[in-house]
Amino acid sequence: MKRGFWILAVVIVLFLPWVGNNYFIRLATIMMLYCVLALSWNFIGGLTGYPSFATAAFFGLGAYAGGVAQGQGIPMYIAWIIGAALAALFATGLGLAILRLRGHYFAIASLVVADVLREIVNSTTNLTGGGMGLNLPILKLGVDAQAKLFYYCMFAIALLTLFTAAYVMRRPLGFGLGCIKQNEDAANIIGINATIYKTIAFGLSAVFVGGAGAFYASWVSYIEPGDVFDILFSIKPIVMVLLGKTGTLSGPILGAIVFLVLEELVWRNFLTFHAGVLGLIVVFLILYLPDGMLAIQYRRWFAWRKS
Q: Tens of pLDDT along 125-168?
């Protein structure tokens, strides 16, 4: 039943670009991007229990790595791989430094990383264009063909992220991350190397985000530090996972879809103070739905089984 649902969902997604206009395709592409961000954050925040705010740093790093690579004549798809690889390497080194911290100490340490990288980009004008931004080569394709191309590429990245998350959750790595979330000291006692496991999770939370950042740079053809290192890229994935359910496979996907709908409503009706409305949504989720919306369904299911 569950496998059939996923197959049907994939078939629907594959045919979406052929039944909608370019605006609809753009929204669907953003939805895929949000799925990547949410699933990636779930590695470190949902499975491991470490509240990371470094997503914006990985996204911006991947965007500029891919953008600079394309500017040097490297093919677009290879540039995306470079963005993903650089983000993963950076996250691994960063993780070894800050994953010794816990709780709000780790959250604060991860929060400032995007600001540091943004200042570095601003100061490297010759390579990145600095505050003037960076222009990328434009594809020689029609508008419709380009929209479909980027949609399917983003779908492929989202599918790869989903398969990786499913694999991790079913392997000893997923079990170890769950133990760390429950009690890190006890996990160390039973033989789980928490430092290695956390670093791997942090790297996984960065690699697909870095690739998505490089994709985003190619998609919009122009990036600037304030855009790709925006703190909202760190906050949005957290909200998405909280909307769904932390530590699950379907929760981040459901949360990404719901968040996109909410975001469209907020942008259209609250243009002047959308950030404040988003903040109110975060507060509501933390206070009343800390485990996400799927947790309500799970509790009902277990109550039905016991009755």
A: 888 888 888 999 888 888 888 989 999 999 999 999 999 999 99
Please name the residues in contact with 116: beta carbons below 8 A apart, sequence gap of 6 or more: 57
Which residue is it, tokens 């999770």? 201
Q: How far apart (Å, rounded) are the C-alpha atoms in residues 61 and 198?
A: 21
Position of tokens 């956390």?
Answer: 198
CA distances from 26 to 22, 64, 220 (A): 6, 22, 11
- Where is pLDDT greater, at 280 or 235? 235
Q: Which residue has the higher pLDDT, 200 or 51?
A: 200
Calpha distance 285→291 (Å, rounded): 8
Helix, strand, or coil here: 223?
strand
DSSP string, 5-48: HHHHHHHHHHHGGGTS-HHHHHHHHHHHHHHHHHHHHIIIIIIS
Instruction: Please tell me the distance from the alpha carbon of residue 59 to that of residue 210, in angstroms, as a whole number.
Output: 5
